[in-house]
Amino acid sequence: MYRPVGLLVCDFDETITQCDSTCEIAKLAYEKRSRQGKCPRSDKNKSIDVCPRPWSHYVKSYFRERKEHIKRWHETNSNKSLQDHYEFLKTLGEVEMISMERVEGDNCLSGICSSELFEHGRMLKKRDGAAEVLKRYLPKHRGGNDSRHLYILSTNWSRDMLFGSLKDYVGIEKERIVSNDLIFDEADTATGKLERNVLSAIDKLKIFKSLEIPKGTMSVYIGDSDTDLPCMLEADIGIIMGSNCALTETCEKFGIEVVDGLVGKINMKDFSSKKGCNKLFRVQEWKEILDSKLLGD
Fold first, then answer.
1. Which pLDDT does position 274 carry in this prediction?
2. Which positions of the chain have pLDDT values less than 70?
3. Preceding amide of 230 cis, omega within 30
4. What is the per-residue pLDDT for 270?
5. Residue 146: its pLDDT value, please?
6. 23: buried, middle or exposed (CB in 10 Å: 19+, 13-18, 0-12)?
7. Which of 11, 37, 128, 223 is 20 to 30 Å from the Cα of 209, by its Cα?
């Protein structure tokens, strides 16, 4: 019999949710300003409180700069080993920082309240079975069993939105959600500034390695992209959710074995001497995790 799972850590966007939800934060801010009659309006008086440009401008700028950064890095750096790839993943945090600074400078996300983000989070569409699997895993911890810990580890920009998405459906505590976040004033209104906590895959890895694995148990990490790869390889069991093409190519390049499915695919060797064992499991839906009984009955 293998060790029970004592530490379960999950990515959020496109792992638990159907789509990336960061843009939903901007949607809330833009729509609220529009309802209040603040935007759109012209900049005839050169006011410093002008309305930001359409959100599509910031999205396009981000992806253009990310593409250019990747091209430059590969032209001047080696990418022959997994460690080289980790160095590359670390530098992607620079692109995230530039994007955040641009959004802050143009005051894109100001004006929304944490309660509005929480309520909007409740409406985010999740992958089928995600909430059920996480809820079934969590109750034993809530009942006083300290051998089970669930964390959400995300590069999303709103902890309140993630909490709203999971609190009622899963029962997770807000303290167990680690992400970037909006900064609020005394009136609980977003200032437009962002708290930077998780900018890259390497930030995720540092946080994951700091989490406690209860004695006699093992760790599982579930993610969907390259940003989750270091954590998936660090965990006793790493699970890929879905078929991200870029992640698949990375695994193939660096000799990381990807086993499709969980049911009947795990043996005792997968739970021992994990360090240095480049093996991940891939599922297409959360039901496969439930059926495997990896997280318990």
1. 55
2. 1-2, 40-50, 139-146, 268-277
3. no
4. 61
5. 65
6. middle
7. 128
What pLDDT is stored for residue 35 in this prediction? 87
Domain count, the chain: 1
* Distance from C-alpha of 222 to C-alpha of 187, rounded to nearest angstrom: 36
Cα dist. 146→64, 254, 271 in Å? 45, 37, 21
Residue 18 lies in a domain: yes
> Is residue 297 situated within a structural domain?
no
pLDDT tens digits for range 61-80: 999 999 999 999 999 998 89
Supply the pLDDT for residue 233. 96
Radius of gyration of the chain (CA): 20
In a domain, 11, yes or no: yes
Supply the range of the domain harboring residue 97: 5-292
The one-letter amino acid code at 141 reads: H
**pLDDT given for residue 26 in this prediction:** 96
Q: Is the pTM of this model over 0.90?
A: yes
| CATH number for the domain that contains residue 100 | 3.40.50.1000
